[in-house]
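Hey, resending since the last one bounced:
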Amino acid sequence: MPRYSRNTLELAKFARKRGAVLIALTDGPSSPLVPLADMTFFAPARNSVLPNSPTAAFAVAVAVADALITTLARERPDAVEALKGLSESLLWTFHY
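The structure tokens again:
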């Protein structure tokens, strides 16, 4: 979303270097995540009636990520261990 987080961009670059397939959920084609992503979903960040809410945008992103991870885990049980390892290696990104 606008005011793109530097941490998000660095995390995407880190994942890309490690060979991850990158799926981006962002606001539009001008997002700096677009050139890094293998697949991009667009969700416009502007609403003409309601104020922009980063909390709502984050909740949607988490729900989409959860659905993708759940689907992947069901289709590829061997991927669960790989996802666990990746999650553990990325814990540093959650420290401020």
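The chain is about 45% helix and 10% strand.

Sorry for the duplicate.
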